Amino acid sequence: MRLPVYLFHTLVPCSIVLLLVSVSNGQGVFLPASGAINRSMGGATTGAAVESIGSMAWNPATISGLGNEVGIGFEGLYSDYKIDSSIPGWAGSTSAENGVSPVPTAAWVYQTRNPNVKMGVGMFGVAGFCANFSADSNNPVLALGIRAQGEAVFYQIPLVFSVRLNDCWAIAAGPTLAMGRISLNQNIFAANNSGLSQSPRGNGTRYHFGGGGQLGLYYTPNDCWSFGACIKTPTWMETFRYHSEDSSGAPKVDKVNFDLPMMVSFGAGYRPNQDLLWTADMRFTDYTNSEGFGDPAQVQANGAVSGLGWKSLFSAHVGARARLSDRCYGSAGYVYCSKLIPDESTVFNLGTDLGYRNGVALGGTWMCSSNVGLSVAYNYFFEWGSSDLLPLLPGLDMEIGQRVSAQSLTFGLNVAY
Prior knowledge:
Number of helices: 3
Order of helices and strands: HHHEEEEEEEEEEEEEEEEEE
CATH architecture: Beta Barrel
Number of strands: 18
Largest sheet: 14 strands, antiparallel, barrel
């Protein structure tokens, strides 16, 4: 990748604030799991009916295997994010003060009067992030005196109906409402105010709305095996609008387009007995064809960046859940994901490398009574990152890289009635 040196003064400090719609240990935009039980199993519940939050998150057809249930979850996510840069004789590394990002989840499954029809409603914090990179004279890429800040939050609210067609098959479908807000102290996706040296501000914007839908299938041929599949359409967001000023101070409105990607999941569950469940999922997230995320990472004639250049992801999830005693369950999971951001797009994605590669999970559930369970899950995502060379002068390149690791602690409450 070759960029004119004058873009360094605009593109690099601005790209740090591209904290677009995810926590740092998600599948790009989407979290790999939702709720304490689903988190503790690596998100692998597309092919198994375990509890309400996991079913509503990855395959609503599996609610056909549940009774009336309410699930509530709260997750605290912490990431260790570092930006490194070096030129001959000058090198440094700087950490972002990300802190802990809260992610709430909730789901409700209800048996209608028709014994073959169930309704489900969910509320998921699919994305949430904030970061605060300070200027750092020891780090070449941050030694510009710019304090980069950015934050984002996205929610999805699915409504589905699941119909059991016979003893083996169930199907579910319904719409998904989304809302989100992206706040950037420098909006590099909008045309520059004066030449190629100043991006408009992108903070203080309102929440924007969007929508999509999903379709799920669930197949249970016997008491041991179960299989599932789910397709989630892209979530088409309305155009993000930012009130800013031009170079003369006159008001203007900048418009930016980003859609959440389509997702396709396949899963299986194996229950050799009533005390043990094994699960496995395969998932595809289509960032390549998602507006904004998959658009080429390049600077346009007006100085705006056209997209992030993310690649579509393939991920594998495995999980297990076992009854340890009359009141206690234990669970574990593992997640693997393909690379989200090519190294050659690193400079456009400083602050947005949200694609983990490997993660492990552990958790447990304590049954307070026959129908009330308290759960906890811990997730750790091993360090990942990307790096590239940015040409400054003939024969002089700056090496720029980013390193991320993350962990989360999730609490959950499930009540069957």
